Amino acid sequence: MLSLFRDSENQHILTLVLGCLMMGSMGIFANMIVQTHPTNVVFLRFFFCVISLPLIALITYPLFRRATREKLTETISFFRNHKKLWTIVGTAMALVVALYTLGAILLSVGLSVILLYTAAIWFPLAEKLACRYLFSDLRPTHFSRAYYLSVILNLTGLLIIILGTSQVPEFGSVPSLVGLAAALGASIAFSFSMVLIRVMKSRGIKTDQMIVASSSIGSLIMLPALFIFPIQYSMENMSYAFGMGFIATALGGLIYFKGFGSVRTTLAPILSYLEPIFGFGLGILILSEQFNTTLLAGMAIILASNIGYTLYDIKRSRKLLSELD
């Protein structure tokens, strides 16, 4: 029975689910850090991710020597041979991570993780700009009417969430407004990162390299915050910061990409939506986040429209492959 489980796809599915859970826990760790300015929480996430990556390599090397060497070679090769792309990828993804973390702290974990998936709204524009000004060899995607329908639904859900947020008593305070703006900014930056994923794949670069590039650049960008804003170096705070950088970012990201690349392409995109579901659920269970009916409706529309389009796209891809056969 054990050998059957190891040889089956179930192991890869559990890997992807575990990665989604670990990444979805980021907002919980971030909100547990006290008496520390939000920008320094962002720095701590980048910093502990950076120091976690070589730690993970040291742990895995005795067990998976070949795979670890290959991963290190890929990382060095990406930096040496594609410096411009490495910088663009690292900066864009660092912006996603920073803004998403700020949204989770200042607004809500559940809202921030769901709003991240409104990136579909901005993706066509982000791709056109990238094709025109950065990557002339990248061919624009031909979007179907179904995609634009999902964009309309995402935009509707976004507007409903903004309406629902305005009904919350604490809305209107500077932190809540900054948090909402950060969550929306993370969504826009994530749409550009999705374009960069296309570019990386076209050049044979694995997408998990985004973790290394973004954490390295993010740490450098956010370093001045240490000397400007308050931070408390308590054992409890550093433990949560380590969990945020190690569990929710470095290890969680690597496990997520490993699972996503191993599960069949018709299932992996659907399972990836467990990340916002886990983030939303953990926010309610651990942080006691509460949402009014309007907010829940908006989040449901965004999540349902994205899952619906993903299912449609998978079905269409199957049909095209069968026609080619």
As residue ranges, the low-confidence spans are: 1-7, 320-325
Cα-atom radius of gyration:
20 Å
Helix content, binned percent: over 70%
Please, how many domains? Answer: 1
What can be said about the biggest beta sheet? none
Order of helices and strands: HHHHHHHHHHHHHHHH
The average pLDDT value, as a whole number, equals 91
The tally of helices reads 16
- Broad structural category: mainly alpha
N-C termini distance: 36 Å
Percentage of residues in DSSP E strands:
under 5%
Shape: globular
Number of E-state strands: 0
Organism: Sedimenticola selenatireducens
InterPro entries: EamA_dom, EmrE-like
GO cellular component, one term: membrane
Keywords: Membrane, Transmembrane, Transmembrane helix
Please, could you describe this protein's structure?
Helix content is 80%, strand content 0%. The two termini are 36 Å apart. The model is unreliable at 1-7 and 320-325 (pLDDT under 50). The longest helix has 32 residues, at 293-324. The chain has one domain (1-323). With 325 residues, the protein is mainly α.
Keywords:
325 residues, mainly alpha, globular, disordered N terminus, disordered C terminus
Describe the protein's topology.
Elements: H1 2-7, H2 10-24, H3 26-32, H4 38-60, H5 65-81, H6 83-106, H7 109-115, H8 119-133, H9 145-166, H10 174-202, H11 209-222, H12 225-228, H13 235-262, H14 268-271, H15 274-287, H16 293-324
Helix pairs in contact: 2-13, 2-15, 3-13, 3-15, 4-6, 4-11, 4-13, 6-7, 6-10, 6-11, 7-10, 7-15, 8-10, 9-16
